[in-house]
Design goal:
Blueprint: E1 4-9, E2 15-20, E3 23-25, H1 32-37, E4 45-59, E5 68-72, E6 75-81, E7 90-100, E8 114-115, H2 135-140, E9 145-152, E10 160-161, E11 164-166, H3 169-172, H4 180-199, H5 203-207
Parallel strand pairs: 3-11
Antiparallel strand pairs: 1-2, 4-7, 4-9, 5-6, 6-7, 8-9, 10-11
């Protein structure tokens, strides 16, 4: 009848069978839906780049809402505020510190998004100082940081199988330059939403 049943494990460990008209696998680069659709998929690719992410309460810079990137494609930082500045000019500043290692670097690959002591990588960014921003101080002012590898996957031959479709990183993971993971997912959702309005919530909308 074109419907689909998904088995979902919830937080308390229970497994529920949920029936619907369509199933969208928007569950990220490690997608379980993708694994079922493409059981022989090749492994994730890591190109040698690590990113460390954190948020620090700090003084806003430039326009007060500026997005700033400094450095090279192999050694750089990205900083921008993610909250409104208070009366003293302080906001939550999101930062990303990025470094590409050569092939001899022995990364443990112990996790894809793990808490990391800031002093284990801060030395790589000691020279990122300007008269309007002290990035080393911004790093050390964060309460916590998280390490992420910059990864992607090989393209798939198809993203739709019957009543099941992959979206976002589950379908077409790519290096997160320019926030590709989020932006591509938004584009996918907009297009599939338009098609469902035109064709209904059914398989026709997935193959239109």
């Amino acid at each position: 009848d074109g419907s689909v049943i998904a088995e979902v494990q919830i937080a308390d460990g229970q497994t529920l069978a949920i029936e619907g008209s369509l199933l969208f696998g928007a569950d990220g680069i490690h997608s379980n839906v993708r694994k079922h659709m493409h059981p022989n998929q090749p492994p994730i690719h890591w190109g040698g780049t690590l990113m460390w992410r954190g948020v620090t309460r700090g003084k806003v810079f430039r326009t007060g809402s500026s997005f700033v990137g400094l450095g090279t494609h192999k050694h750089r930082i990205v900083i921008y505020p993610i909250s409104q500045a208070d009366e003293n000019g302080y906001a939550d500043i999101n930062w990303i510190a990025e470094l590409t290692y050569d092939e001899s670097f022995d990364w443990t690959k112990s996790g894809w998004f793990k808490p990391t002591p800031i002093d284990t990588f801060a030395a790589h960014f000691e020279d990122f100082k300007q008269d309007w921003i002290d990035f080393p101080a911004l790093l050390l002012g964060a309460g916590e940081a998280y390490e992420n590898p910059m990864i992607d996957r090989d393209p798939l031959d198809f993203w739709v199988d019957g009543s099941v479709a992959l979206l976002g990183d589950a379908a077409h993971a790519m290096y997160p330059t320019g926030s590709n993971g989020a932006s591509q997912s938004i584009i996918d959702a907009r297009i599939i939403g338009k098609l469902m309005l035109e064709h209904g919530v059914n398989q026709r909308s997935l193959i239109a």
